[in-house]
Amino acid sequence: MRTLDTRDEKKRFRAKMEDEKRRRDATIAQQCLDKPFDGNWHGNAGQFLLRWYSHSPHHQRLLLATRDGIVLAAPPRRVSVGREKHMQVVARLPAPEATLVDPFFGEFETRMLLIRFQDGSWLRVDTEEPRSALHMYVLRHPLADN
User: Fold this and answer.
1) Of the candidates 45, 50, 66, which has an alpha carbon nearest to the alpha carbon of residue 115?
2) Does pTM top 0.90 for this prediction?
3) Which DSSP helix (H) or strand (E) runs through 108?
4) Residue 79: is it exposed, middle or buried by C-beta count within 10 angstroms (0-12/13-18/19+)?
5) What phi and psi, each to the nearest 5 degrees, are found at residue 82?
6) Residue 17 CB: number of other CB atoms within 10 A?
7) What is the β-pairing status of strands 122-126 and 62-66?
8) pLDDT tens digit string along 92-120?
9) In the prediction, which pLDDT does 57 show?
């Protein structure tokens, strides 16, 4: 759609996108969201992360969010082809224990979500696409304290 814009409109749009990227990057750095988790190995997120790879060394996980909690699935250890077909549930996090949150409350279109644990610790989750179905779920079901 931008191909029909005038040169000035394109310039304004680029400036707006660059400003949004600068604000998003500053927020990420300020909240230390450029790390995989909050850094506290003794917190619930750190302990969960230590157990994370004991289930499967593969870096990708399938994450399902429900009102009852979060379910994570992963391929078994030695599967290289057709991993999606061989996914196994490796963790269930009940809603009182952990929730899925958008750290930007929908302000920015990102691939980032957080699993926030009851103790306040968090684990970063990157989706395959910005504004994924998980993002839409989180935005439709915000936490009471957001």
Assistant:
1) 45
2) no
3) none
4) middle
5) 70, 40
6) 10
7) unpaired
8) 999 999 999 888 877 888 888 999 999 99
9) 67
